[in-house]
Amino acid sequence: MEPYIPLAAAEPPPVPAPKKSGVSSDTVWQFWWQGEASAPSPVLTCLETVRRYAGSRPVVLIDSSNVHEYLDIPRVFLDRLARKEISIVVLSDYIRVALLSVYGGTWVDPTVWVSGEIPPATLDSEFFVFASPYWAATDPAALPTELLGILRFMSNRPSATMFGSCWWMSARPGSLPPRITKRLMEEYWSRESFGIDYLLPYDLMTLAFLVNPACQEVWRRMPKRLTTDAQMLMSVLLEPYDGRMMDAILARTTIHKLTHKLPANIIRSDMFYRRIFVI
User: Fold this and answer.
1) Residues in CB range of 75: below 8 A, 6 or more apart
2) Parallel, antiparallel, or unpaired for β 28-31 and 105-108?
3) Residues 147, 160: contact at Cβ < 8 Å?
4) What's the gap between Cα 12 and its chain centre?
5) Are 257 and 109 in contact (CB under 8 A)?
6) CA-to-CA distance for 240 and 84, rounded, in angstroms?
7) DSSP letter for each residue of 144-164
């Protein structure tokens, strides 16, 4: 990661003009590359809950048929996707920071299940992501410099190296963390032959928070909500359903990161999973 430290510390290029006019900065962005008609049932359930609780905010589902209305995606991503050198996940990682850099709004992964009113702080802040417990309680400027070394080697790193999660991200147009991450992703995939880590976008944004003072100021101003709360329900999806536990989880948060990648042959009717998803 060492070659990318100067880029992470520097001011990124100006935000390009929006390709599509009239897009609200309150837009909720979602993504399913193959189109909603091809999405599995659990994803459709999640998409419906986001639309239900988004209120008056427009919800746009990005797919292969409409993404070019909003963005000019660099050829390096499209060419490498065509050659199967990168995955759809890598492309979606780029699309989210590119959309938020230009248009603002809120990116919500298609496996986020919403159980009630969405807290305004997760939608309206200058910048928002769910934070790891360690980072939520720590000023990034005071984090140990050893984290940079861990990021350089991308191996056996503790969870403290990660700022949080990118599956829910809100930003105003031109917000610095998405802009820097966008630039770093463009540089990385132009230089490197393969992705050294599945969570590369997390690593790149973490790098920006570690070395860029302006990004650190954005982090200090950000409302802190924990990834551990938002991922609690995912941790019990295959457990026998318990109403009291469900009530306790729903009382902590209305935003839940789940997964649809569970083998059908291990899912039983008495599990949490079946109470949420009809499959």
Assistant:
1) none
2) parallel
3) yes
4) 20
5) yes
6) 39
7) -THHHHHHHHTSS--GGG--E
pTM flag (> 0.90): yes
pLDDT digits 0-9 by tens, 115-130? 999 999 999 999 999 9
Picking from 2-11, 37-46, 179-188, 230-239, which range would have the lowest pLDDT averaged per residue? Answer: 2-11
Strand-pair category, 255-257 with 112-114: antiparallel
Tokens representing 111? 């496996």
User: Which has the closest alpha carbon to 70: 32, 106, 23, 12?
Assistant: 23
170, 157, 140: which is closest to 199 by C-alpha?
157
Non-local (6+) Cβ contacts of 138 within 8 A are none
Question: What region, left, alpha or beta, does residue 225 occupy, with left being phi > 0 and alpha being psi -120 to 50 degrees?
Answer: beta
Kindly give, in sequence order, each residue whose CB lies less than 8 Å from that of residue 31, ignoring residues fewer than 6 positions away.
61, 62, 63, 92, 95, 96, 107, 109, 110
Would you give the DSSP letter of residue 27?
Answer: P
Q: CB of 166 within 8 A of CB of 93? A: yes
d(CA 32, CA 38): 9
Residues 6 or more apart whose CB falls under 8 angstroms from that of 16 comprise 72, 102
Q: How far is the CA of 213 from the CAs of 8, 189, 218, 219, 234, in angstroms?
A: 10, 25, 9, 10, 34
pLDDT tens per residue across span 79-103 = 999 999 999 999 999 999 999 999 9
Single out the residue of 154, 157, 97, 156 nearest to residue 129, CA to CA. Answer: 97
